[in-house]
Write a structure and sequence with these properties.
Layout lengths: L7 E8 L5 E10 L2 H50 L7 E7 L6 E6 L8 E4 L4 E5 L4 E7 L10 E7 L2 E10 L5 E3 L1
Antiparallel strand pairs: 1-2, 3-4, 3-7, 4-5, 6-8, 8-9, 9-10
Length: 178
């Protein structure tokens, strides 16, 4: 009999040719049920851990991407004001409707009347500032691109309030992500 390493010998009763039960046993090499269950359990635990890690990583990437997209959008709006596109100021409204998905909107003029472009936040991201049911406007002056006042907006993952990103516009017009 050839011995294979890694296998556990399992006793097996064999029938002789005359169909009498043999009192002796021979060893058959293979895995026991306990070994198979342990391996399957370990694979399941490792797989679940990997799945949860990837899920958390994906969510972190979503909020990071949403934040970077918002910063780029704000810089584009500021550039429109500096270049005096349409000969007027340009602004952004951050809208956090109660029970709905948040969005930020581009508008022209000294105050919000209508949005010319709207960007909706990803489904897993929401505003924490402005609070639900409110909005916040920031207007950039033409030529200088300075904001009418310093402002900040905070976004967070839905269901994970500890994962946040804050976008700040200071009085000198610098736009930063924290």
């Amino acid at each position: 009999m050839r011995k294979l390493s890694g296998f556990t010998p399992t006793p097996e009763r064999v029938l002789l040719k005359n169909r009498r039960k043999a009192s002796n046993t021979r060893l058959v090499w293979g895995f026991t049920l306990a070994e198979v269950l342990i391996v399957v359990g370990l694979i399941a635990i490792i797989g679940l851990g990997g799945f949860l890690s990837l899920s958390r990583f994906r969510q972190e990437q979503e909020i990071r991407l949403a934040s970077k997209s918002m910063v780029g959008f704000l810089r584009d709006v500021q550039s429109k004001a500096i270049n005096q596109e349409s000969g007027t100021e340009w602004g952004v409204r951050f809208d956090s409707p109660a029970g709905g998905r948040g969005a930020y909107m581009l508008f022209s003029g000294p105050m919000f009347v209508a949005a010319s472009t709207t960007v909706t936040l990803p489904s897993s991201v929401e505003f924490s500032d402005p609070a639900s049911g409110s909005s916040k406007d920031t207007v950039f002056e033409k030529i200088t691109g300075l904001p009418d006042s310093a402002a900040s907006v905070t976004i967070r993952l839905i269901g994970n309030t500890s994962s946040t990103k804050t976008i700040t516009i200071n009085a000198q017009g610098a736009i930063q992500e924290q």
